[in-house]
């Protein structure tokens, strides 16, 4: 088993910076902004030969209200599941009342705790850690997470008292199908994540922008592995002002690129809006398989439901390959049906395609509807083969392929999707022109015959 270490403390003491330092990543968003982290975030670290699992948590103070209460609950859950706790405090701020409250919570829970005084750069380490001995938690480690000062020696002391991690080849990290849950703020993404997991794993609050970072969660359903990615909501660019929100959007776009299947959550009470269409375009451009979930469906009257369905038929024709589900993440209605579409989309996106079958489909498509004439010569498409997966890429060879018009490309995409029974994934067509083997061979010039006339008689 790999030991689990939880990072806890007040907001803005450097927990996420320490998380990135120990996991050697940039997975956690870091900014000079209190309360940035809200959900538990897991990552794996390694010091020497010793591996460990690290849990980043939101800041707690003991006087939480509203959403801060939910953040504190996430932190307490991380403490319960951890083997040891790194209690981080800020040397710049000194000892605070909130630090006393957190220390009391840790003593009551009986967890092995190491006190870490962060941000000691520019200070005398001995003087910086002196006030924190008042908490009665033993030795205080002086660190600067941004520069790595004191971090290695601290972790060596922590790991020396933990059992060595055991490699278990029978239990590799299972990721399975990666599913990114994306959508505008406050459409119910985190509620859907918790419903699919069957537990309150991420913070849910009636406030747009509750989720700020992409959270990867590995789990199993019916002995089948999955990875679900909860992401921050994406608003229109003109409404994005905070630097933190810009980082969140970058994390969401990275999650889309990293996922196998993207579940786009739409607020059914508001219908399909321009930002939803923009997100669909982003997902298709990334080549990811797509499942659409219209959330909050239970609370609508029949008239509004019919209006939304009409809007979908009118505005979502360009994603006719994607399955659309009407769900209620809060009550669980229709959520289980998402898995069938997820499996189907993933299978379609990753299936191996036969060259002979693709070529036959191409020949049938050309026989039914020939490519147009270009400069008096007809475009010739000869054969096709697979060029990649997730999304499926079909490479078509022929002559003058650079001049194939867009409408004919769409015709080929629909033909291949129908013939291959692909559902839930876009298809990309790439063309390659056959080289002319005689292009570089120069024709020999014909010999020039002399045109001299024969002399006239008598001249």
TrEMBL record:
<keyword id="KW-0342">GTP-binding</keyword>
<comment type="similarity">
    <text>Belongs to the TRAFAC class TrmE-Era-EngA-EngB-Septin-like GTPase superfamily. EngA (Der) GTPase family.</text>
</comment>
<comment type="subunit">
    <text>Associates with the 50S ribosomal subunit.</text>
</comment>
<feature type="binding site">
    <location>
        <begin position="56"/>
        <end position="60"/>
    </location>
    <ligand>
        <name>GTP 1</name>
    </ligand>
</feature>
<feature type="region of interest" description="Disordered">
    <location>
        <begin position="432"/>
        <end position="459"/>
    </location>
</feature>
<dbReference type="Pfam" id="PF01926">
    <property type="entry name" value="MMR_HSR1"/>
</dbReference>
<feature type="domain" description="EngA-type G">
    <location>
        <begin position="3"/>
        <end position="166"/>
    </location>
</feature>
<dbReference type="GO" id="GO:0016787">
    <property type="term" value="F:hydrolase activity"/>
</dbReference>
<keyword id="KW-0378">Hydrolase</keyword>
<feature type="binding site">
    <location>
        <begin position="183"/>
        <end position="190"/>
    </location>
    <ligand>
        <name>GTP 2</name>
    </ligand>
</feature>
<dbReference type="InterPro" id="IPR015946">
    <property type="entry name" value="KH_dom-like_a/b"/>
</dbReference>
<dbReference type="InterPro" id="IPR005225">
    <property type="entry name" value="Small_GTP-bd"/>
</dbReference>
<protein>
    <recommendedName>
        <fullName>GTPase Der</fullName>
    </recommendedName>
</protein>
<feature type="compositionally biased region" description="Basic residues">
    <location>
        <begin position="442"/>
        <end position="459"/>
    </location>
</feature>
<dbReference type="InterPro" id="IPR016484">
    <property type="entry name" value="GTPase_Der"/>
</dbReference>
<dbReference type="InterPro" id="IPR027417">
    <property type="entry name" value="P-loop_NTPase"/>
</dbReference>
<feature type="binding site">
    <location>
        <begin position="230"/>
        <end position="234"/>
    </location>
    <ligand>
        <name>GTP 2</name>
    </ligand>
</feature>
<keyword id="KW-0690">Ribosome biogenesis</keyword>
<dbReference type="InterPro" id="IPR032859">
    <property type="entry name" value="KH_dom-like"/>
</dbReference>
<comment type="function">
    <text>GTPase that plays an essential role in the late steps of ribosome biogenesis.</text>
</comment>
<keyword id="KW-0547">Nucleotide-binding</keyword>
<feature type="compositionally biased region" description="Basic and acidic residues">
    <location>
        <begin position="432"/>
        <end position="441"/>
    </location>
</feature>
<feature type="binding site">
    <location>
        <begin position="295"/>
        <end position="298"/>
    </location>
    <ligand>
        <name>GTP 2</name>
    </ligand>
</feature>
<dbReference type="Pfam" id="PF14714">
    <property type="entry name" value="KH_dom-like"/>
</dbReference>
<feature type="binding site">
    <location>
        <begin position="9"/>
        <end position="16"/>
    </location>
    <ligand>
        <name>GTP 1</name>
    </ligand>
</feature>
<feature type="binding site">
    <location>
        <begin position="118"/>
        <end position="121"/>
    </location>
    <ligand>
        <name>GTP 1</name>
    </ligand>
</feature>
<dbReference type="InterPro" id="IPR031166">
    <property type="entry name" value="G_ENGA"/>
</dbReference>
<feature type="domain" description="EngA-type G">
    <location>
        <begin position="177"/>
        <end position="350"/>
    </location>
</feature>
<keyword id="KW-0677">Repeat</keyword>
<dbReference type="InterPro" id="IPR006073">
    <property type="entry name" value="GTP-bd"/>
</dbReference>
């Amino acid at each position: 088993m790999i030991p689990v270490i939880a990072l806890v403390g007040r907001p803005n003491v450097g927990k996420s910076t320490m998380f990135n330092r120990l996991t050697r990543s940039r997975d956690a968003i870091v900014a000079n902004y209190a309360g940035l982290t809200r959900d538990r975030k897991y990552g794996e670290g390694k010091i020497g030969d010793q591996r460990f699992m690290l849990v980043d948590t939101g800041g707690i103070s003991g006087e939480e209200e509203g959403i801060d209460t939910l953040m504190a609950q996430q932190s307490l859950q991380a403490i319960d599941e951890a083997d040891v706790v790194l209690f981080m405090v800020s040397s710049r701020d000194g000892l605070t009342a909130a630090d006393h409250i957190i220390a009391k919570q840790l003593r009551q829970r009986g967890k092995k705790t190491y006190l870490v005084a962060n941000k000691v750069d520019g200070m005398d380490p001995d003087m910086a850690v002196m006030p924190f001995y008042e908490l009665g938690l033993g030795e205080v480690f002086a660190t600067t997470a941004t520069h790595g000062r004191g971090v290695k020696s601290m972790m060596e002391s922590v790991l020396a008292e933990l059992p060595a991690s055991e490699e278990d080849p029978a239990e590799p990290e299972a990721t399975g199908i990666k599913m990114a849950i994306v959508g505008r703020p406050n459409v119910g993404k985190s509620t859907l994540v918790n419903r699919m997991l069957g537990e309150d794993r991420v913070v849910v609050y009636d406030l747009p922008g509750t989720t700020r970072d992409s959270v990867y969660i590995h789990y199993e359903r019916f002995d089948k592995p999955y990875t679900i990615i909860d992401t921050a909501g994406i608003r229109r660019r003109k409404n994005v002002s905070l630097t933190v929100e810009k980082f969140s959007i970058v994390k969401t776009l990275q999650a889309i690129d990293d996922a196998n299947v993207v579940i786009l959550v739409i607020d059914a009470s508001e219908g399909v809006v321009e930002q939803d269409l923009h997100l669909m375009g982003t997902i298709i451009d990334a080549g990811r398989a797509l499942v659409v979930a219209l959330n909050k469906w239970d609370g609508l009257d029949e008239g509004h439901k019919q209006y939304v369905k009409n809007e979908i038929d009118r505005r979502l024709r360009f994603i006719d390959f994607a399955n659309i589900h009407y769900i209620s993440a809060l009550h669980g209605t229709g959520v289980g049906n998402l898995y069938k579409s997820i499996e189907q989309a993933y299978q379609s996106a990753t299936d191996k395609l036969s060259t002979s079958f693709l070529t036959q489909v191409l020949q049938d498509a050309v026989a039914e509807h020939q490519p147009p004439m270009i400069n008096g010569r007809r475009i010739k498409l000869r054969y096709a083969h697979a060029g990649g997966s997730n999304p499926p890429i079909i490479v078509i060879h022929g002559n003058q392929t650079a001049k194939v018009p867009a409408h004919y490309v769409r015709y080929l995409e629909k033909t291949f999707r129908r013939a291959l029974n692909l559902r839930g994934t876009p298809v990309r067509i790439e063309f390659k022109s056959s080289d002319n083997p005689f292009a570089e061979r120069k024709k020999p010039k014909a010999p020039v015959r002399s045109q001299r006339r024969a002399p006239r008689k008598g001249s």
